[in-house]
């Protein structure tokens, strides 16, 4: 079947397309060339403009007073959008930082900001190094062959972020399962069910857990991020139950799933580009650049949506007031006008103006933590690595939002 721009646009609303890297990037490349501001009217979805050029994604991110996160911050089916609208009217909807605009966004973001500043990161670094060693040792214990994505990559950043929150290790498995169900709603393996009610129940389970946590931290505050969130005050009043639980949800889920996706995607890239693996082993000072190249390569957050508050001209196309736009980060991060040979994995790529963490006021709160975790893991792994190869076919999760590899079978030798 010949790929047309209309077919390519529909792939942005097809979770299975995101799991097929070649198909997906062929579609994005065609849209960048022939229809960079493209109207998508996919069955089962409210229509939207697909924005696929780096420059245009930046322009919309910069114009945050014109392009709002609310009421449609993520791509969902029309039915799911309607259910979320109804729950928002009832005051019981998920309302994380990615759902908010200023002034609420600025005020709510500040609650956890100090926990991700450089001083806090420096204090956390020894613990991250310790955990990195633990999980490389875990690879040794697994006997030279494992599913790296499921047995190593998901656990290391999960342990980091949930320790930062102050959750007991006994609850980590529960948080992992809920996260996989939340981001895997379109994946046959990870979804809890196929109905909106079943999908909603995942959020309600998160809320129930975090409401109990909030009560405990308000009763007996501790020195962790969970206490900072539970005891925060806005104009002298605590956050309501749903805003508090929503804050926990975004930290606990995005804080590890995106990083684990990058660590798995980064290892796959090194295996498939052995010259880059050897280069990084010879030149460990390249690690900061290599980390950003892994992040660009994997781009675990696939899209955010914005809604125009007024008519806006972009590349000669009029985006009407009320129209939704989809910002495609994987496409922006492969833009030929910005990246030299964008489909070449280069551990020394510099500059690397990727948009995997977003831009502007909505820039990822945990970006420094993610970089530190990835740097620590590969900084521990590579000096000990003797050999590594694929032991099967990697598989990616079906999603339109957050995702990466769900299977990465590898065979290796580690000292």
Automatic annotation (TrEMBL):
UniProt name for this protein: Cytochrome P450
Family statement drawn from the similarity comment of this UniProt entry: Belongs to the cytochrome P450 family.
Keyword tags: Heme, Iron, Metal-binding, Monooxygenase, Oxidoreductase
Domain of life: Bacteria
Pfam families in UniProt: p450 (PF00067)
Gene3D superfamilies: Cytochrome P450
InterPro entries: Cyt_P450 (IPR001128), Cyt_P450_B (IPR002397), Cyt_P450_CS (IPR017972), Cyt_P450_sf (IPR036396)
